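2024-03-11 09:14:02 DEBUG pipeline.ingest accepted 1 chain
2024-03-11 09:14:02 DEBUG pipeline.ingest length=336
2024-03-11 09:14:03 DEBUG pipeline.predict start
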Amino acid sequence: MENAGFTHQNMEKRSWVTLALVFASFLLLFAILGYAGGYGKVVDGLVDTTYRSTLLADMRADYKRDEGEWSFGYFVPLAVGALFWIRRRELLQTEVKPALVEGGLVIVGALFIYWAGYRGHQKYFGYISGQFLVAGMVLWFLGWAWFKKVFWLWLLLGMMWPWRFLIGRISSPLQAIMVKMTSGFMEVIGVDAVSNGSQLLTATPDPKTGDPISLDVDVACSGMRSLFALVMIGLVFAFLRVKDEWKRWVVMACVPVIAIIGNFVRMMMLYWGSTAFGTEFAIGEGHANISGYHIAAGLMVFVVALIILSFVTGLLEGGFKKLRRPKAVSRQVGEE
């Protein structure tokens, strides 16, 4: 019995030592070592190409850029921790069977990506490396069964890294879709509208100024700004409310469509607000001074998204069968 207790104490001690080493490794790679400097830092009028900032500093700086486009990244680790805590009883019952070979290969590959990014001053390589290092650690210490259980949490953790290079690639096609969708709907309801790039010109006069109402489908109104946040929300829905893997993928496939629908609702709210109260009230004065109504219309995107996501997950999980059964029973009683 003494040997068993001694062995158990040793195993517990080794576990804590292992966690401390893993934490120290991530701290060294991402918070202490200089990694990427981009185009360099200007010092006394000269560009210092040897300058390297840490990946953690790069992340914090990227969270602030583009009007805080990726500022939700601060809350991603908290969300992952909260979701793990909610499902902890189920997760902690998963068998621990370390996949040393597969986990080791993933870790080695992640470290190679880290090195390549270091040599090329490419911070995104560092972000990719961090994501795969987490996967490798899970496989190495816990095994495939655990990785399958926390796969969606791992994907959610990927939203922590600010993938800002995607912003330009996604915003342009979304702007075109939003302009065509809004102008097409306006034609259906009898409103004359002409699209000009990312701008929508209508024949409806502003009740305050008398000028034609113009809607500018900028990056935010295109759906790109809400898309990334909705991906995060979709991952939460997929993890908590859907059981089967294929259903979770269906939920995630619906997220871009939901983002477009939500932003279409916002665009129509801005148009109807402009027709009723004027452009200054509904939209504001330029990008720097948007109105409270404009902010409320932006929040409506997420209200619409949550309603649709709830409907989709309920439909996938058969939550509407109960609504149909009483009708079937009442028909049988009526026939008798």
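2024-03-11 09:14:41 DEBUG pipeline.report The mean pLDDT is 80.
2024-03-11 09:14:41 DEBUG pipeline.predict end
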